[in-house]
Amino acid sequence: xxxxxxxxxxxxxxxxxxxxxxxxxxxxxxxxxxxxxxxxxxxxxxxxxxxxxxxxxxxxxxxxxxxxxxxxxxxxxxxxxxxxxxxxxxxxxxxxxxxxxxxxxxxxxxxxxxxxxxxxxxxxxxxxxxxxxxxxxxxxxxxxxxxxxxxxxxxxxxxxxxxxxxxxxxxxxxxxxxxxxxxxxxxxxxxxxxxxxxxxxxxxxxxxxxxxxxxxxxxxxxxxxxxxxxxxxxxxxxxxxxxxxxxxxxxxxxxxxxxxxxxxxxxxxxxxxxxxxxxxxxxxxxxxxxxxxxxxxxxxxxxxxxxxxxxxxxxxxxxxxxxxxxx
Length: 327
Ligand SMILES: NC(=O)C1=CN([C@@H]2O[C@H](COP(=O)(O)OP(=O)(O)OC[C@H]3O[C@@H](n4cnc5c(N)ncnc54)[C@H](OP(=O)(O)O)[C@@H]3O)[C@@H](O)[C@H]2O)C=CC1
Ligand SMILES: Nc1nc2c(ncn2[C@@H]2O[C@H](COP(=O)(O)O)[C@@H](O)[C@H]2O)c(=O)[nH]1
Description:
Layout: E1 10-12, E2 29-31, E3 34-36, E4 40-42, H1 51-59, H2 74-83, E5 89-92, H3 96-107, E6 114-118, H4 125-137, E7 142-148, H5 151-160, E8 164-167, H6 177-181, H7 189-199, E9 204-207, H8 214-221, E10 226-229, E11 243-246, E12 249-255, H9 260-263, E13 273-277, H10 282-299, E14 313-315
Parallel strand pairs: 4-10, 5-6, 6-7, 7-8, 8-9, 9-10
Antiparallel strand pairs: 1-14, 2-3, 11-12, 12-13
Helix pairs in contact: 3-4, 5-7
The protein binds NADPH dihydro-nicotinamide-adenine-dinucleotide phosphate (NDP) and ligand LQESDW3C.
Residues 43, 45, 147, 168, 170, 172-175, 177, 207-210, 228-231, 256-259, 270-271 line the site of the ligand Nc1nc2c(ncn2[C@@H]2O[C@H](COP(=O)(O)O)[C@@H](O)[C@H]2O)c(=O)[nH]1.
């Protein structure tokens, strides 16, 4: 792989502005036949999303993916979202019982609009078989499959029937896959996204490694239709994680889906737990993301998200922050 880089190594190059106000820039994106306000989705992790946040996001035209760590709640979750006239977006794994769950949804005609197959190493027969199973029983559900980190994987999952693929093995803030296994896209996630996007014929969701709002625009530039984010969404008033105080500061827990805290045992642990500063309301963060992305579109010289896809860029190896922090 030539040209390896990550988010912090890239700066996008401005083009002539065509708007009089950033508010004229449209950040909306289409995925699976619906239009969402932002190309951003909170990670399907237990300290990032719960039923209340899913409801808020769906009601306000944001994309969401409910996590799969309370499997017994998923059936009613789908029904309740749809009874409110909202779309349902859930996650599944690949273990035996998940096959039965998909069949039960089909038998009862409780059909989620979106299903994400959420496992660590998505380039596998297990995922291919699950894609085919969902497409057989729930052909109208939009299937997102992952996670992967190579063009071969994207092609294979698309060929198996996936409607979108999710790219990112190990770039996450609470991920320790890269350290424990030596594998992944950690440290070159943006280059991996570009590599995968070149092979993709369907939407790609960039997953993990987003540390600033500018990284959302960079993801779009390098081929993402949607960006999945954990750490920037952790620590909100509404976030499900436990709130505590460390050194007089209010903090909230954020743990990996493959951490000991999630699994309840120390087996195949590839995630850790951290505490993030309490951040206030989720709405404020979403509004700020939208404003920053509108600004990105204006710097791209357009009025729509797609204008970011064509901008030039430079590689400025490890230098853009110069020791600066956002706050
Ligand atoms: N994006 C990322 O970089 C990563 C994300 N995660 C997240 O952690 C959660 C748990 O993931 P996961 O452990 O896959 O889910 P599960 O614990 O549900 O495992 C899914 C199945 O895949 C098997 N499996 C898991 N990893 C591998 C592997 N490397 N090779 C072969 N088989 C494997 C498991 O068996 P067995 O356990 O017996 O091997 C199990 O049968 C998910 O939410 C996932 O997204 C985890 C790691 C990396
Ligand atoms: N290797 C692991 N990756 C994990 C784990 N739990 C979640 N994740 C991935 O991280 C992203 C979020 O990344 P962030 O940089 O925005 O915080 C999430 O969507 C998963 O793909 C884990 O335990 N191990």
